[in-house]
Amino acid sequence: MSDLRALLGIRHPVVLAPFGGLSSVELTAAVSSAGGLGSYGLYGYDGDRIRQTAAALRAATAAPFALNIWLPTGDEVAPGDEHERHAAALTDFFDEVGIDVPARPERYLPSLDEQLDAIWQAAPAALSVVFGVPSDALVDEARGRGIRVIGTATTVAEARALEQVGVDAIVATGAEAAGHRVSFLRPAEESLVGLVSLVPQVADAVRVPVIAAGGIADRRGAAAAFALGASGVQVGTSFLVTAESAANDAHRAAIRSTAADESVLTRAMSGRLSRGAANRAVRQIEASATIAPFPAQNWLTGRFRAVAAQRGMGELQSLWLGQSAPLARGRTAAEVFAELVAGLPA
């Protein structure tokens, strides 16, 4: 435990999961200020937005925080001739929220280089990555700037691959976790390892600190993670229901009402496998003949999801949540954090 605390400059080995699209400065700062590592997901952020976000985080907390990016996997599609066909398949949702079918954009996502240039300027305490192994150049640049690099693995083989490039810590994320399955060596459907199996095997396979993620919601989950060999815990769903979260009331209600066996793994909303509630949008898209590849599907559904979120239309949102959602009971970040700390080794 002390290795991770010293490595990241934190008092407690509790990490806030980086929510792509659901991060908030208030929640990230609250976890960091409490002595953990607040994380902020930068999915889709261009350089200017990253710099603005980092400035807001520094204004909100003097404690260490992490920024998170998605590494390109090489199979991402660019806007092309298929855009109009994929957009037309979602016409009913655009109509329901009262927006036009979106025209083809110049790009779906900013480039990795643009994001990294802004991250180096922001100089967070840590950079966490998902969906792959960071390049030697990325790790070297981060190390030269005093930025710790945290990789994310869903299998033992992925953890070994991350250690080989010199990451400072590895998040071992079990299949119970909310949101995207961030597998990269094999398809996500073939990499669904539960936390109880994953964490001890990863801890045995690598020498760097292992951060357990997936299904950890309270002191019992935190204690279990350390008993399995983890050096820290990463928690998402329990923090999503708090007052500081960017989740709206519809999303919070879904977390509190979705049983462990009711969450689903779906590609409907983004084109990549993700765990969340099976609302009407998920069911309808899965029943259709067309789900665009990533990131086209994510960009397209994002047009109506953003409006739906503003209006509290839960049936048209991405309601990401993990299998321990019924255990998410804290009202504030401080309450959740204190509950988790109560399960840590003395």
From TrEMBL:
Keyword annotations from UniProtKB, A to Z: Detoxification, Flavoprotein, FMN, Monooxygenase, Oxidoreductase
CDD domains xref list: NPD_like
Record InterPro entries: Aldolase_TIM, NMO
Essential cofactor(s): FMN
SUPFAM superfamilies: Inosine monophosphate dehydrogenase (IMPDH) (SSF51412)
Catalytic activity: 3 propionate 3-nitronate + 3 O2 + H2O = 3 3-oxopropanoate + 2 nitrate + nitrite + H2O2 + 3 H(+)
Family statement drawn from the similarity comment of this UniProt entry: Belongs to the nitronate monooxygenase family. NMO class I subfamily.
Protein name: Propionate 3-nitronate monooxygenase
Natural source organism: Microbacterium commune
